[in-house]
């Protein structure tokens, strides 16, 4: 893997901990890896104590031997710096490394990702080990990717962090007066006269939940601090090894770490995909699309998934036969170029001892999991590089802002049940259910290539965002906005321009009040005149904007309560385009029908019409379109092959030609060559 040729094949394998085993076991691992078609392993993620047993002692020889062994078998290394778990001697001799938690308790050594991101000692030692590894392995034939640390997400409230926070604030606001203004510190008499009076928001003062401007900046600061940790190691690596891509894996979606910002510093986005048992395929798809959007649509790395059950769920359901294969292809279908697992060989002790592994405790290949993984590895090997590096051409976009997520859920009121990811998922599902390809991007992104853009609940409107949305709509775009939008600025200060603030003329409405109801109460949206399938009455819940029409027209009105008859769904013609406003949290069917109708009006189509329960995506590479079909439904379906070449799956002849046969959980990949 080089920057020029990032994915010469689909990388298959995953996290490998040879340091937990004797070297005789390594030989057996190599035999099993070959049987399973493993071509990449990630190591040595947590081996800092083994590599650096004391401050001045380094033991790389074991790592040399395993890397040589991998290279001799043609297996690439996703080479990780081991800095997610510092050695015990380091915590003992340099206590500034140990973090202070949100409740003010100094933590003791243990676990992992248990360090202060602003500790000078941590920065010094992590840079040191990264540099030594880069110097030693920069030309090693196994080296394919640099993987820095693991699953960043440490939060610290120590004195070092407090001092660094004050410095960060000085840079952002320059004067104490400006800080007082931007945080609205006149409230409750919080005014400060000196930077040293600033404390960190925590459970000790409740500012972590009661003073949103401060907490928002602390989350920004912790994200920046963590990025600094990443860059500290990355710079050391690049100083001697500049031709190998550098990444790190995010653990699912850690809300507190702004991944949209973090990924600006990485060559490839990478994430760990651990859906809860029974998770909706649309939710997994949304998360893949979020990751693809982090680097502007570039291929990404699925760094971890479990080959079988996890160990931290309340009930760790086995992955059913075919489930790992389906989840793996779903990742590839959405833009991943790797299928990597945690873990290769199952540990005998510790919290992950029952986490799924390619090689389970008894260490042989005669297991269901091994057989399924090995068969998958063989399929991926045969696919070669047919779609690696391929892109997704979406005509629809979903706009997501990480800091809006923070702000929306930090807000005390109007409804404590507000769940941004659930709202995003609802809007996304309206596209997904129709197999409309969606790019998930930021509100400030270039929108000119999209025919339909949805931006649910944009509570926080940052500078430039409303201008971007206006420019898009004015030039003929179709925008759909959700309720409780245009409320605050980037510091969570409420607009005094009348909601939805800067977007008031774009949406042609003024929201005077917003009502919130408990989960057992709801209202309705009556559609004034049928528009396509959008007809009759839909239920709505949770939040209800009470608005006045300015230049917009009402497509739907509330059915109950004192605001019965007032608009609940509006459209405003703006320039050559249209801006829709869904003034409440509607039932899924309303979004399905509205988005469906807007897709039809704007020529946004699925790559192929397929039966319900079948997911279809397309990745384009060179002159070829690679179609992925995945059957999440219960029934076997048959799809026309349409002259495409089948790469994965089964076909059967029928009266009207060849058909792809997709049983429950089945996958097919078919490539269509386009004349160049
Ligand atoms: Zn700290």
Question: How would you characterize the overall build of this protein?
Answer:
Strands 10, 11, 12, 13, 14, 15, 16, 17, 18, 19 and 20 form an eleven-stranded mixed β-sheet that branches. The chain has a six-stranded parallel β-sheet with strand order 5-4-3-2-1-9. A four-stranded antiparallel β-sheet has the order 21-22-27-24, covered by helices on one side. It is built from 18 helices and 27 strands. The model has no long low-confidence stretch (mean pLDDT 96). The protein is globular, with a radius of gyration of 26 Å. The chain has three domains: 11-153 and 245-383, Glycosidases (TIM Barrel), CATH 3.20.20; 396-601, 3-Layer(aba) Sandwich (Rossmann fold), CATH 3.40.50; 614-673, Golgi alpha-mannosidase II (Immunoglobulin-like, Sandwich), CATH 2.60.40. The longest helix has 27 residues, at 212-238. Helix 9 packs antiparallel against helix 14 (402-410) and helix 15 (420-432) crosses helix 18. The chain starts with 10 loop residues before the first strand and ends with a strand. Helix content is 30%, strand content 21%. It has 676 residues and is α/β, with parallel strands linked by helices. The structure holds zinc ion.
How do you describe this structure in short?
By secondary structure, the chain is of the alpha/beta class. The chain is built from 18 helices and 27 strands.
């Amino acid at each position: 893997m080089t920057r020029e040729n990032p994915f010469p094949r689909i990388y298959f394998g995953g996290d490998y901990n040879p340091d937990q085993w004797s070297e005789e076991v390594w030989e057996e691992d190599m035999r099993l890896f070959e049987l399973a078609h493993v071509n990449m392993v990630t190591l040595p993620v947590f081996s800092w104590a083994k590599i650096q047993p004391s401050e001045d002692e380094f033991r790389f020889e074991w790592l040399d031997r395993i890397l040589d062994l991998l290279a001799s078998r043609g297996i690439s290394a996703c080479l990780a710096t081991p800095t997610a778990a510092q050695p015990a001697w380091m915590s003992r001799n340099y206590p500034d490394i140990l973090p202070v938690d949100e409740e003010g308790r100094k933590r003791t050594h243990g676990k992992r990702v248990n360090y202060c991101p602003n500790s000078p000692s941590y920065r010094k030692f992590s840079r040191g080990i990264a540099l030594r590894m880069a110097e030693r392995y920069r030309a090693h034939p196994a080296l394919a990717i640099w993987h820095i640390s693991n699953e960043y997400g440490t939060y610290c409230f120590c004195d070092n962090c407090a001092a660094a926070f004050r410095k960060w604030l000085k840079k952002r606001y320059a004067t104490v007066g400006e800080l007082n203004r931007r945080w609205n510190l006149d409230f409750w008499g919080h005014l400060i006269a000196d930077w040293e009076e600033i404390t960190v928001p925590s459970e000790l003062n409740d500012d972590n939940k009661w003073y949103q401007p401060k907490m928002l900046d602390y989350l920004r600061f912790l994200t920046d601090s963590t990025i600094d940790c990443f860059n500290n190691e990355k710079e050391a690596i690049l100083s001697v090894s500049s031709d190998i891509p550098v990444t790190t894996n995010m653990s699912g979606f850690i809300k507190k770490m702004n991944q949209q910002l973090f990924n600006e510093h990485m060559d490839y986005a990478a994430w760990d995909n651990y859906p809860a048992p029974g998770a909706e395929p649309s939710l997994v798809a949304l998360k893949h699309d979020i990751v693809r959007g982090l680097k502007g649509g570039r291929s990404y790395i699925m760094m971890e998934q479990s080959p079988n059950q996890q160990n931290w769920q309340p009930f760790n359901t086995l992955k059913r036969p075919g489930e790992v294969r389906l989840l793996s292809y779903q990742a590839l279908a959405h833009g991943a170029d790797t299928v990597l697992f945690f873990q290769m060989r199952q540990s005998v002790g510790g919290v992950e001892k029952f986490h799924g592994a390619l090689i389970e405790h008894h260490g042989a290949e005669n297991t269901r999991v091994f057989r399924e993984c090995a068969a998958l590895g063989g399929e991926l090997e045969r696919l070669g590089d047919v779609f690696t590096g391929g892109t997704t051409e979406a005509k629809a976009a979903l706009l997501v802002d990480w800091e809006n997520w923070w702000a929306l859920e930090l807000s005390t009121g109007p409804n404590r049940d507000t769940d941004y990811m659930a709202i995003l998922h609802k809007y996304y599902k309206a596209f997904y259910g129709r197999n409309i390809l969606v790019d998930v991007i930021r509100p400030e992104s270039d929108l000119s290539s999209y025919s339909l853009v949805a931006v649910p609940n944009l509570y926080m409107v940052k500078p430039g965002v409303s201008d971007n949305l206006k420019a898009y709509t004015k030039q003929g775009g179709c925008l759909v906005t959700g309720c409780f939008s245009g409320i605050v600025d980037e510091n969570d200060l409420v607009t005094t321009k009348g909601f939805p603030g800067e977007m008031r003329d774009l949406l042609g409405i003024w929201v005077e009040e917003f009502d919130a109801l408990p989960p057992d109460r709801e209202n309705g949206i009556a559609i004034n005149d049928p528009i396509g399938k959008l007809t009759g009455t839909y239920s709505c819940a949770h939040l209800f904007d009470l608005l006045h029409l300015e230049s917009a027209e009402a497509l739907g009105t509330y059915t109950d309560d004192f605001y019965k008859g007032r608009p609940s769904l509006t459209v405003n013609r703006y320039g050559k385009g249209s801006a829709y406003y869904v003034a409440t949290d509607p039932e899924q069917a309303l979004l399905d029908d509205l988005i469906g109708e807007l897709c039809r009006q704007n020529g946004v189509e699925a790559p192929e019409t397929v039966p319900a329960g079948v997911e279809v995506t397309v990745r384009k590479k060179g002159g070829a379109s690679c179609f992925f079909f995945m059957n999440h439904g219960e029934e076997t379906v048959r799809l026309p092959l349409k002259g495409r070449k089948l790469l994965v799956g089964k076909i059967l002849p029928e009266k009207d030609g060849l058909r792809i046969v997709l049983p429950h959980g089945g996958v097919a990949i078919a490539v269509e060559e386009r004349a160049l």
